[in-house]
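Question (not urgent): is this output format expected?
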Amino acid sequence: MSLRRSPALRSASPSKTGVEIAGPEQFGLDEFVRTGLVFRDDPRHVVTDPGAPYYGAVVPDERTLLPVDADAAQLLQTRFADWLAHNAS
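Got this back:
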């Protein structure tokens, strides 16, 4: 499923502050990338480096990238594995 197909996101009013989104699963960034590589039969190995920057910023805690207010976030129901399968090329 594409975010463009989400009725909740399509019908939302424009926001100057942005919209936080989340899926039904939580992943560390390393696990997220590892899962995508495995799905594509990519043999590269993911090395976890807690001190590595994320777009130039050090992320102090893996929960930092979760929505700030889970009650206000748009929670989508598509699981990552289902999204990968649907978007496989």
